[in-house]
Design goal:
- This protein has 439 residues and is α/β, with parallel strands linked by helices.
- Helices cover 57% and strands 8% of the residues.
- It is built from 20 helices and 7 strands.
- Pfam families: AAA_16, ORC4_C.
- Belongs to the ORC4 family.
Length: 439
């Protein structure tokens, strides 16, 4: 082999290695991007920044910093609708405090999982890693004894002891525990000015303070931080965009994100969410499928994926169920819709069948019923019973000796849902016109 040929082979090998390394790097970058975005969407990672929460952040940060640095015990309640950023705010403050000092302990409780004081106590002990040194000599016969022992540990220190920060998510559910013993003792320990403690409650109920007993309320500091949904659409878009924005080194991805949020389709999806609830988590649900489809071939988010995902999220379960019913069952549902239009709110099978017969007779007279036939009463009754089995039709009174075709029932669908189902159903044009009111 000549020297020139050898050099060509060597150059070819180098190019192949470079291309392979570039491909592996690209795949790795997409995988890292996907992992980071999914972590943000499912709550494992915090957003890049908190939007419009500067005042709330400063208030909570100052309060907890006093507990960590100065040993001042305190309590506070964060109140706001779901999706307004209560959990993200608390986690951001704790994360920033840990950068300054790691000399404090965090105990997280949730009213959905700690449904009684015993479970809450076990969780506190687990997170504090309380070890009973003289376990053989000490035994607790009752829950009250173990509770008193745990509280004595919390109250036994002084201002130089390790601060403990309690985070009570779904705070209003703790108020439903018998005698509110857990809340009373936590607030009492925080007020005792011994071991430094901070009790932070998170709730979406505005009337939470009214749920507290007088003795519990008297030990609460009455500090409240209110969080509100986005006040305008532009702010909501910035929050949504911040969820998906990557660090500055990912310039190409961030540039594509700017274009994505200027797309009318994506703007329409965000406007729909903003008008209905202003809950950013609804947007996060739509983002999941789009982020999961990121790949080397599709390294950027696509507006088409967002549209498809939003249609799936907004799909009505009952309307989707109607896709699988027979044509006769659909016609019976349309007959019920026609009765509802006549202000007949409850009906029996005979009334529905008569409405169906009137439609078929009228269709035959007009000569437009080609390919359609009037089903016998027994067949229609069986279809009506199937609708009852699917719970699309439910009885309004207790079944007695009345024949089943004369038992009063009601339709468990809105008229708009029936119209939407008819439009999606592949049925004869006459049935479609009748069901949508075009005929």
């Amino acid at each position: 082999m000549s020297k020139r040929s050898f050099d060509q082979v060597e150059d070819s090998n180098i190019k192949d290695k470079v291309a392979k390394l570039a491909q592996e790097s690209s795949t790795h970058d997409v995988a890292k991007t996907q992992a980071l975005l999914l972590a943000r969407l499912n709550g494992a990672a915090l957003p890049s920044q908190l939007h419009s929460l500067d005042q709330e952040y400063n208030t909570l940060y100052k309060l907890l910093k006093q507990t960590v640095d100065s040993g001042e015990s305190n309590s506070c309640l964060l109140i706001g609708n779901r999706g307004t950023g209560k959990s993200a705010l608390v986690r951001t403050v704790l994360k920033d405090l840990e950068k300054l000092s790691k000399d404090f302990c965090i105990v997280k409780l949730n009213g959905l999982t700690e449904t009684n004081d015993r479970l809450a106590l076990n969780e506190i002990a687990r997170q504090l890693a309380v070890e009973q040194e003289d376990q053989d000599d000490r035994s607790f016969s009752t829950f009250a004894d173990s509770f008193d022992y745990m509280l004595s540990l919390l109250k036994s220190g002084d201002k130089s002891s390790l601060p403990v920060i309690f985070i009570l998510d779904e705070f209003d559910l703790f108020a439903q525990h018998p005698k509110q013993a857990l809340l009373y003792n936590l607030f009492d320990a925080a007020q005792s000015a011994q071991n430094p403690m901070a009790v932070i409650g998170l709730t979406c109920r505005l009337d939470t303070l009214e749920l507290l007993e007088k003795r519990v309320k008297s030990r609460f500091s009455h500090r409240q931080i209110y969080l509100f949904p986005s006040s305008n659409f532009g702010q909501f878009i910035e929050i949504a965009k911040g969820t998906l924005t990557l660090p500055p080194e990912h310039k190409l991805f961030n540039d594509s994100l700017e274009e994505l949020f200027q797309n009318p389709t994506v703007n329409g999806i965000l406007r729909h969410i903003f008008d209905i609830s202003k809950d950013i988590r609804m947007f996060h649900k739509i983002c999941f499928p789009a982020v999961c489809r990121l790949s080397e071939r599709q390294p950027f988010l696509s507006a088409e994926d967002f549209l498809e995902s939003s249609l799936v999220q907004r799909a009505d379960s009952k309307t989707e169920l109607l896709k699988g019913i027979s044509l006769l069952e659909l016609i019976l549902i349309i007959s019920m819709k026609k009765l509802l239009e006549k202000d007949v709110l409850s009906f029996n099978f005979q009334m529905v069948y008569d409405e169906y017969k009137d439609f078929m007779n009228e269709t035959q007279v007009k000569g437009m019923g080609f390919g359609m036939k009037l089903y016998k009463r027994a067949v229609a009754l069986k279809a009506f019973e199937n609708l009852q089995m699917f719970e699309l039709v439910c009885p309004t009174d207790i079944a007695g000796k009345c024949p089943k075709e004369y038992r009063m029932t009601k339709l468990m669908l809105e008229q708009a849902q029936v119209t939407e189902a008819v439009l999606k159903y592949n049925c004869p044009s006459m049935v479609k016109k009748w069901g949508t009111g075009a005929a």
